[in-house]
Amino acid sequence: MSIRDAGARLVNNHFHALTHTNFRYFWFGQCVSLIGTWMQNIGQSWLVLTLTGSPFLLGLVGTIQFLPVTFLSLFAGVLIDKYPKKQILLVTQSVSMVLALILSALVFTHTVKYGYVMTLAFLLGLTNTFDMPTRQAFNIEIVGKEDLMNAIALNSTTFNLARIVGPAIGATMMAFFGPAWCFLLNGLSFIAVIYGLLQIKTDPYVRQKKKDIGILREIKDGIVYIANHKILAQTLLLVTVVGTLAYNFNVLIPVMTKSVLHLDEKTYGLLMSCLGVGSLAGALTMSLRSKKGPRYSLILVCCTLISVFLALTGIAHSVYGVGAFLALTGLCNILFSTNSNSTLQIHAKDEYRARVMSVYSLVFAGSTPLGNFFSGMVAERYGADGAFIACGILLLAGFLTVVMIFRKKPSVREEQAVF
Questions:
Q1: Over the stretch 14-61, which tens digit does the pLDDT of each residue have?
Q2: Rounded CA gap, 344 and 340, in Å?
Q3: What CATH class does 18-200+215-418 carry?
Q4: Going by C-beta distance under 8 Å and a sequence separation of 6 or more, which residues neighbour residue 266?
């Protein structure tokens, strides 16, 4: 068997989403763009910590960046259903590129201030409020339901490969040339994803126009639909708990590096890459088993393990220990998020999918302001190690609370329908 035949067989058996031309354009564009995104993420965190020296103010930037998601996601979901998703993504990706280039110019000209970073973070968060649920709902248009979980897993693979490569490149750029280059390269990286979007040819799903009942009534309609669908409601509550307490790495890892381990930006990049290695392993695992579909039991196991590994990260006071537990946390985070995301998209009706995914964005990313604020406040008083431990304990408590709320198991018929 030739290498080409072996590669084709591997794609057909385990990465079938890549057989769709539209998905390949989208996926390869993301491969480039997300590396730049992670370079900007670590560059912005280190820049703010350098400007202010305050973990609390660093956490506040994260809060401001995700605040629009918290307040506007539900409105975004209604609007996204009414327009072609490809066109929305072209706008959001272009705006994100401009914001990154503005930040790079401010740093290059030595005119950057904390307030400017806050403003740009808010505008980026506003853009992401429309970008995130649109990207989630766009997947099913370019691969269909059968290959949806594989597409989500491959997107996670891209995201987490970028989480490894991006911080490593970003840390090196910061060490030798300063953070401005991280922001510049991120801005230029959006060219790849915009080009990919322009090549995609698809019949967009746009919800048929009905009698105008008002945006608030449409939001209410979506929430009632979720509340009456047990699997959707249960999954979204768990995503809320995990999103609030398990994704504060942009606040806690730089503080852990600087104040607990007493090391520099190279170690910061290394620890972020450890998180990415674990996440990449989780994404590849999900790609290989995506044909089996999402499993709720795996979601429960991952919630437990994430809480344990967060607490152990706080207890470990060596680079090797912190790096190892971050890798394990990243592995479980991706297993959890991929299963949760797939469960929601597969079982939401077409006319509700964008609204369901906007709620997903709200509870997953929109809960981050609260988590960033909480973790920054705890790290300010008790250190990053104390914040990691607190997040792990509270995550376990929140997870058990959700399990108790839904302690009645679904019937065999319902379980078969879902899984």
A1: 677 788 888 899 989 988 999 999 899 889 988 998 899 888 888 888
A2: 6
A3: mainly alpha
A4: 171, 172, 175
**Beta-sheet strands, E only, within 237-349:** none
**Quick one: how far is CA 158 from the chain centroid?**
12
Please calculate the CA angle 391-396-406 and round it to the nearest 5 degrees.
135
* 316 CB-side CA count, 13 A: 18
What is the widest separation between alpha-carbon atoms in the chain? 64
Per residue in 233-286, pLDDT (tens digit) is 989 999 999 989 998 887 888 888 888 888 877 788 888 888 888 888 887 787
Contact 249, 242 (CB under 8 A): no
Backbone angles phi, psi at 241, to 5 degrees: -65, -50
| Predicted local confidence at residue 418, as pLDDT | 41
Q: What are phi and psi of 325, to 5 degrees?
A: -70, -30
Region 146-170 average pLDDT? 78
Q: Residue 371, CB half-sphere, CA atoms under 13 Å: how many?
A: 29
Query: How far apart, in whole angstroms, are the C-alpha atoms of residue 331 and residue 283?
Result: 8
Report the chain's terminal Cα–Cα distance, integer Å: 36
- In whole angstroms, what is the distance from residue 79 CA to residue 206 CA? 10
Tokens at 120, concatenated: 């740009």
Question: Quick check: 128 pLDDT over 70?
Answer: yes
Tokens (6 digits) for 381: 């008083």
Report the chain's mean pLDDT, rounded to a whole number: 83
